[in-house]
Queue: 2 jobs
Job 1
Amino acid sequence: MADYNTMELMICVASRELDDGATAGVGTGAPCAAAMLAQKVGAPNLIIMFEAGGISPLLPEMPISVGDSRTFYKALMATSMGEIMETCCRGFVDYTFLGGAQMDMYGNLNSTKIGGEHQKPKVRLPGSGGANDFASFCWRMMVMTPQDSRRFVEKVDFVTTPGWIKGGNSRYEAGLPLGTGPYKIITNMAVMDFEPESKRMRIISINPGYSLKDVQDNCGFELLQAAKITDTKPPTDQELRILREEVDPYRYVIGR
Amino acid sequence: MADYNTMELMICVASRELDDGATAGVGTGAPCAAAMLAQKVGAPNLIIMFEAGGISPLLPEMPISVGDSRTFYKALMATSMGEIMETCCRGFVDYTFLGGAQMDMYGNLNSTKIGGEHQKPKVRLPGSGGANDFASFCWRMMVMTPQDSRRFVEKVDFVTTPGWIKGGNSRYEAGLPLGTGPYKIITNMAVMDFEPESKRMRIISINPGYSLKDVQDNCGFELLQAAKITDTKPPTDQELRILREEVDPYRYVIGR
Amino acid sequence: MKVLEEGKGRLFTDPDPDKAREFFRHKSRKLENKLMPLKTAIEKFVHDGEYLAIGGFGANRTPIAACHEILRQGRKRMGFAGHTSTHDFQILCAGEVFDKCDIAYIIGLEARGLSNCARKYMQSGKVEICEWTNYALAARLRAAAAGVSFTLTRNMMGTDTLSYSGGKVIECPFTGKKFVAQPALYPDISIIHVHEADIYGNCRIKGIMIADDDLARASKHVIITTERLVPNEEIRRDPTATRIPYYLVDAVCEVPFGAYPGTMAYEYFSDEPHLKEWLKSEDDPEKFKAFLQKNIYECKDHYDYIELNGGIHKMNELRQKEHMLHKEVANG
Amino acid sequence: MKVLEEGKGRLFTDPDPDKAREFFRHKSRKLENKLMPLKTAIEKFVHDGEYLAIGGFGANRTPIAACHEILRQGRKRMGFAGHTSTHDFQILCAGEVFDKCDIAYIIGLEARGLSNCARKYMQSGKVEICEWTNYALAARLRAAAAGVSFTLTRNMMGTDTLSYSGGKVIECPFTGKKFVAQPALYPDISIIHVHEADIYGNCRIKGIMIADDDLARASKHVIITTERLVPNEEIRRDPTATRIPYYLVDAVCEVPFGAYPGTMAYEYFSDEPHLKEWLKSEDDPEKFKAFLQKNIYECKDHYDYIELNGGIHKMNELRQKEHMLHKEVANG
């Protein structure tokens, strides 16, 4: 069996979620690596959009910014952030990958602050950026993140980016576009989705080398369990080779 | 004294209203001729904008459409109608020239219909086009039109384009941008403005060869009179020469 | 939300962005060859009873070839966006293609005069109408392009144009001021003529955009007619020049001189004598019937029509006329 | 108008379009030479207490030279649009230039890491903040550019981002659905770095626009820094390429490499080692003070700074890096 690290595993698993001919709004780092890998493995027609305005570039290598020259290198269009977000809001963008310092059982994300007063926080974080926008507009929001109890918390300090809000139908009652919402959470230990009624996070597959107990022990809230929990298919040699040789040869991301 | 026709007179008089360094949203025909004449006489820095998207072209000749190639020939920018109208709405455009089949004492214009039911009019006209937009957004709206009682009416069949609405403060109470409104009406017989309080049309100068009585006799409503009514300065030889030789050599407009 | 005043006009399309999203969700994003004959494109994507919008501005960069084909295929009962429409409107009225019309500018051909045929049709009572302005319709397309249900404008207030429109006057919660809420317009189908496109539908437009960027984004289906095809590599060479991205587009039709007898900036100027002849022929219904038979119904395609009206010699003349206007630009 | 929910954040600028109109009414539309040194432009148009916005996206096409000059001139108590800001934000925090901030994205340098200095400043309580998103601020600029007091978006709802913003949730009178009304943002001054401009301020931008088209239109004053000047004839040769028309612009400053150490697409790539050195130097306050002295305060202008960091040899290296990425484009 192939040898791989945590980041490589998450990227390979995430890349399989992106189907051919779909559109994805991605950022830098792991999400971009997953999208590039998908294009080179199962989804050659995957269309990548960057929030700063790049549409479907022929990415020569990983961008260091969602607005650097690579994000519109040989692109089909170099446009504005407004147009990218409007395209998402019109319903043209299928997937987005996001992250955050904290996430709750409904997939709500915090990237704004931890502790203290809002005007004088203990720890200030970057804020929404385009995360709240992508999560509101794209059909399926996914998260790639290492799993531990400090990230997976009962209550986030600040809801920067919408998940299923308070569960049930609360996301749509709040006014967000119908049919959108968190789809999959991919960690070093497992893959989770959300139970259709309660919209609570649910384990659907466990990664090689981890147990159900590991996953729950490293989560600050109770995880639901799918009727049938499968084993996450490990990265194939082909996935690893392409990821290491073509997608991230300088190990910017997989070297972390 | 120079010999000239009605159209030439109106164009020359209108052109003097456009000051140097101002911006004007104009259509085809007489308004465009007036703007071109102004550029060649007293206002070389007059900026012409066409609603289809042309900004400050070096007009080689009169356009036949506000969207034909001449309207952005060597222009500073070729953009969208939305941007032109937004520029007007932001307060960047000083003047516009409009016309209509009917006008009332408040400068409200009708270019939509005459008689009959709205869904089955006796005479259907083109509608607003960009007229209502220009009249709502530009600081000073002017009209060039031959004067007769069928055009200058007590009540227009349809208010397509806003003048001072019902007079007084009614234009701003309706919600239109503060400080905008009809400015001057230039006819073959006279030049009119609007009395500051009532906002009713008022004679301020009489064109050569006409009397106060002619002006009132050819108007379907009572015209106010300025404290001092002057004689309209007739076209100068220079204005006529430039208009005939440079602005409209084929007499598209002045030949009508 | 408190509405202070509203027009009595009926909306011919649904401004609900979630319904539009549901449609766009299932629209293909695949980079696939969309090249097809114009005839096929009109058959596949223009249907009786749907809402149609035409790009360009009157007789400038307007897909005239497509308008003729719509008449040949006899489309009826459509809704139409009478937005900066002139010769295109004149053609569609001749075919009585629509019976619902959002009106901004109709009937007129600007400085050229008015179309008797179009005027008679609009006075016949056969067409349900709703009044707007050029900017109001542009703002309605902008709302749809942004995926929301309305945008604000400061026009129309205080006039009958508002009273007979579908707009609503609302009070701004930040300033207390009045604005018109212009409802999103999502056409079922729009047809846009461009300078260059690749086979996937990535398009370039030179000169004024009018409202075609938002029109393409607002429309559920888009047919592109293009003066010429360019390779996808050329599109990718200069992504800044792309104005319409391929995923908005359903059909790409190569139609050189597709805007004739109108103007196509940087390509050819309008055929004014022919447009005059057209207007003149409308004075006599019998004469006009024959004119339409000859110029549209008995033509197999746009090239039969061009052949009838001077063929390649005329096209070259019109190129010269445009070239005269754009010497530096054309050479630049 | 009924407001269903609203954020508690304070608006740092007035969304009233009539007040903005009154200002724009008196802004010169004359085609006049606006060329001046960057130092002069900052002196004339950037004032303590005003609201500032910076174009570009983080370290991409960002007017870094102008940010340094603002520090040298010691501007204070400004409002700032923390919109897609990264290295620019890091610089302005080092100078404690602003004490009011609309936040979309701050502190971070994307994949490069976080700025300790910026983070400490934002945790100090010295800065009054209001939360937004990248698109929310773009939508606020869009409203201002359109001359209205708000635009609708479908983001932020259901989150604390809305609760701490200045947005209001309203009900659509057409669909009954909820939307966020994003109040117009009219900055007092914005600074935008472009590829080409003429002396009047007509500008061209290659590649992504980000939000700079609307930013220029929304701002009361605009300073342009440009990689190079082009003759007005060149602008008029291809009016389709103009992105910012001159009448929006107050000052044109020719600043080659003006986005260094960031990326200027088609010109030069970012100086990643220098950006790393910058981030690293922030770990030790004394070290960072010295770093700022050397790289900003003791520099006469941007060229002293470039000289300190490799001069023309480094610039050529960065050109090569960008050229590598854009071989075909650069040659195309």
Job 2
Amino acid sequence: MNFEPTEEQRLLRESARSALVGLCTMPVLRKGFDDPAKLDAFAQALWASVAELGWTGLVVPEEHGGMGLGATEFAILHEELGRALFTGPYTVTAVLAAGLLQLAGCPASLRARLTDIASGAMRLALLEVQSGERESFFATCGHGGTVSLGTHRVPDAGVATHFLLLATEQVTSSHAGVGRLGMCLVDRSASGVTVESRESFDPTHTMGSVTLRDAPLDPGHFHVTELPAAQIARVLGDMRLARCSEMLGVADRALSETVAYVKERKQFGQPVGSFQAVKHKLADAYIALENSRTAARYAALARDAGAADALLALDVAEAMTSVMGIRVTGDCIQAHGGMGFTWESDMHLYFKRARWLASTGRGVGHARASIASAIVEGRVEF
Amino acid sequence: MNFEPTEEQRLLRESARSALVGLCTMPVLRKGFDDPAKLDAFAQALWASVAELGWTGLVVPEEHGGMGLGATEFAILHEELGRALFTGPYTVTAVLAAGLLQLAGCPASLRARLTDIASGAMRLALLEVQSGERESFFATCGHGGTVSLGTHRVPDAGVATHFLLLATEQVTSSHAGVGRLGMCLVDRSASGVTVESRESFDPTHTMGSVTLRDAPLDPGHFHVTELPAAQIARVLGDMRLARCSEMLGVADRALSETVAYVKERKQFGQPVGSFQAVKHKLADAYIALENSRTAARYAALARDAGAADALLALDVAEAMTSVMGIRVTGDCIQAHGGMGFTWESDMHLYFKRARWLASTGRGVGHARASIASAIVEGRVEF
Amino acid sequence: MNPSFSAAEEAFRQEARIWLIESLRSVGYDAMSWRERLDTDFCMRWERHMGASGWTGLSWPKEYGGRALPLVQQVIFQEEYARAEAPILWNSMAHGILAPTLMYYGTESQKKRFLPGILSNEERWCQGYSEPGAGSDLAALATRAERISDARGDRYVVTGQKVWTSVAQFAHWCFILVRSDPKSSRHKGISFLLLDMKSRGVTVRPLRQMTGESEFNEVFFDGVEVPVENRVGEEGQGWEIAMTAANHERGTFFVPMLVSMQSELRDLVKLARTTPSDGRPAIEDPLIQDKLAQLYMDVSVMRLNSYRTLETLMQGRPPGPEASFTKLFWSEVRQRMLELAMDILGPQAMLAWTDPQAAAGGRWQREHLWSRAITILAATSEIHRNIIAERGLGMPR
Amino acid sequence: MNPSFSAAEEAFRQEARIWLIESLRSVGYDAMSWRERLDTDFCMRWERHMGASGWTGLSWPKEYGGRALPLVQQVIFQEEYARAEAPILWNSMAHGILAPTLMYYGTESQKKRFLPGILSNEERWCQGYSEPGAGSDLAALATRAERISDARGDRYVVTGQKVWTSVAQFAHWCFILVRSDPKSSRHKGISFLLLDMKSRGVTVRPLRQMTGESEFNEVFFDGVEVPVENRVGEEGQGWEIAMTAANHERGTFFVPMLVSMQSELRDLVKLARTTPSDGRPAIEDPLIQDKLAQLYMDVSVMRLNSYRTLETLMQGRPPGPEASFTKLFWSEVRQRMLELAMDILGPQAMLAWTDPQAAAGGRWQREHLWSRAITILAATSEIHRNIIAERGLGMPR
């Protein structure tokens, strides 16, 4: 029985919210929309501020200069990041990479970089190595040298100090099997690294096309290992969980601004919000949002408790929040009427971030199929 | 361009509607709900009346005493039958059997029974032979003798003078292949025929468990043949089309009674129908109903014109009307509030008939899958 | 998906579970069919047995014979009760609504007179709120209570009609809302009375519902006398009392329904495994699987929501629109779940639930029909969406 | 799914198709990218070319230079136009709304002055209806028109603001609703004026929408003079004129949109075939297939509906709520279709439509964003549901 945040967690939320109100404002974000370099520069400045607040080290162990906190905490923080439409590669760096470097078998030289993550010195953008390039990549991660990879589209590439190259695959096929994981870090400024700026669907994140041609790996910054598949899934799952929580924050902010708007805006002599159709649409949005909140919080609790159903809970959270976020932010546009689809309104920013978040992962279809398999194979408890 | 009924078709609709208002009334139907024998007796009397109106011979060629009309006409009539919650095996007898007996290769002795269908002397209930019993059934249909079949649940079995036993299978697997069809008629009063009364989900139809043990086939009343699969599908499709049209009538009546109710019923000092939530629910019901009407009418037109997309149009009509009928009648219950789920209200009768109709066929899933296959295989025109 | 409980809580769960298993076994519950378990006489006997065994009044203060258990343990008991698929509790209106109302608003003598009968389930109660002209709009109620004082005493004479009154045919008493001030309208002038169903002038007429059963009734009051001492609270305070009462159970009322729905989903998955569709088990259809996945998500999150609500309650924070939220979501998900059951049954759905050959004893058809009522009873979905918008989001009325 | 046409109708279809193919080929349309085809200058040039070639005014009486074709042929042309994926018609407001209005309500000299420019597309029009405070509630409009008669003539002086005015930046003229009686409210006291966009006091400010483009504008009127002879109908008759005008195109207005949606669905199926999802083409996913099947059903029935409507119109029977019905259903289905496109695109959806590398030239992302507007513009879905309930079902207002 611990759905409600502890006193410390509540404090984290409050301080995050009030800090972000000052740090990441719409007017500043908007200045970067037509100029990626400006947005990247802002993301970089923002990074320094949040590093100072200790957030970059949220899940980094204390011995590496971090706070050593868990999923419940990074989930709470991501809700706030979502509310603020935070920009920058926070999730990849402070959740995914910080988790990967703590996995069993990670060489000390690589693990030592946790300190740089915590201090804010390192900002990582993610290149997921696809099946065609995976085998040679695993080989490279085994012995170092140079790495070449075809063009990848990488969110926040322009802000990164390094790229995190990552590949995983299932070694034994059973559900509780073994997985292989290969990863390495490549310096943004290394030879052979090209980053070309692209336009992002979500204007509050930049996007880059990254190509690596014989880019050198620093000694000690590569690593390939076999681990229980569940451990790998857990670390990758942390990123998914963070996205879910961010989605909650986005939808929550969109909905509360919409409620405020429909209370004020009048048509036919009364507030738009007094029309039953608008009420019911937003009531349904509220239900969807609160259900997602429950699902995402439980997924975090289950993750921190090492519960047997933690991954199933994550699938539920992901499937619910993705659909919810897109739907709620879309309904918020609708409830705004004509204003809702102007550039000037913030509604489209929430809507675009929601789609962006839903598109980063394996997608809602994958999560639903995974729940369905669990049911068909009798792996759920009723 | 012929969506609107012709003058003759309009007359058919009007005369059917006014005849049924007198012939098939709720009070009389309701008397049969707790006593299947009474409902069967009523269905039998009703049959005599509709035979007199010529409806039993609607699609029977004139040389056999029928009217020789087509799908558009039986579709119109079925809408009216649905509105009236008509009871009895009309569709099986006057659409399916009348169609089967007109198929190429049907022996003259069997085809001659079209006269009995048209005159109203014959009422047929359907036993579809399932895969396990199919091979021996085809053999029987080839040489006559006696037939044995395990227990089948047969709607309107108590009203039938004969049972129509039917099996079909695909012989060559391509989409435009060949099919095998076996059928025979068994007299309700023949030796070896047992009918046990069952309770029906739809109280306006009776249901029987029918078992055949060495029941004799009359000479000339059996038949097995191979035909183009499309021809078989067309005749079986006629029954599906009739069900779609009946569903339209059911939903149309439920909706119009509901609209009348919500205009009268007051809560909070105003008609319930003036609340936007009720308006929008019924507006959506109206849209679903009108869309289904369009789909079903087109399916009938395409069938009568022998259009290449007639079966696809039927899948569309079936998938739409099934979902629509269940949803609209359910929403009508909701809009009635407490009254809607009483036995006294007619709403549950429409709701039950809708489910009954949706359950008689292969189901909406089959129709949707068939549309999906057509898309995937590139068999649809855009 | 289960949050964790303390060792003491788990021990209590064990105790409750064992008592339920053994008691149910002793009445032959395992061997009873789904339909036998619905039998009214049996259910009411069982209910009295619960009272006699000390498993009622878990939330009541000890001074009224209750066990004064913490909220968590009450919830645990309700979970175990639902998980054991134990009988329907016909006297739940008395426990859920009337008893807390009496404890708060009742006089000492009312408490003494009525609470023990509720605790033991020897006295069953029905709720007289809805009227033909006052459904969603309860404040439109018209049943009159005229006050008369004469040699025979100080009393109300009640005349009017109630509807959707469940258990009225088995009830000893009825708690009823009446208009005690004939000149009043809407929320004012309403009083809350305790009315003896054996009184002269009470007529109960069963109301058949679309399942074919008659669980509800119309109840007619033709000059029924109610002594003034059977009024709860002040004259004209009825609306306030009724609204407060509706909040009493907010936290735990729905727990058993949510747990039951989990069992129902489990059984639906079984149905999908065992029912053929196009020659294969229905569960092999990816579209059926996807619908089951959605239901699993909904049912899981609903259960977790109830824990969230419980925590809010335990921290003494003001409740939001949780009661409306839970009722609305539960009723709509359950309706959808039972539609899926009908889809899976396919042609088997054409048999009435009352037919002895109906699949699974007719359970799915019956519950499907019943589920059409749950979005209407206890306020329609439309009313609950209004409440959520107004109370949850603060939107204008 | 195609109903049958007469031989003469098919011949006309052939003629139209050939003209379209050849004309489009002559301007190099085949080689143009999806985005080049959106270019405003190109579209407006094409539009004038249509006027010069006699393919405008198909519905107009011959006395005004039209071709007076029967309704079916008008529809056939619109189908062929859409099937050829021919350019957007920027002057459609003039053809669809203003021209029939002038023919019915206009004076002879208004007809003579304005109809030829519309027919040739040499004069483009925008529609000045919506205001910041009058969106769904059009009757709340506040733009004032003060009537002044002096030595300089009899004229209106227009002051106020319009919004969501598409094409205003390219328009020569604006037909505008104004409040000519300052003491009036709601539907009364509104007049319908023809306003020269080159007049002093007109300011057009583009309004950027969520796609990043600026198709709409805010238009400000600061004491703009409109001669009285540019008022259509009587003073105060504006509301009636606007409502009648909205009905003019009821039957055929949506045909091109429905045909375009068919092409869009065809292309979406292609997208599903060519986009990988989990290492297989997305179209192999049974859930994607089911969604495509639903869209196919919706799109087919929508097209058939338009033929049904057409028949109703041709029989001269009074139209029902078809315009609302079609607009509502079209907009919601299209929104759903474009959401599916985004789902199919998966990670590819993370690129903006304006990026040169965006899949299919960014078409899906852009249309997806645009589709959020279509349930709002030309009355919100909520308004259309009201209209359907009130006019289609006769429910109380």
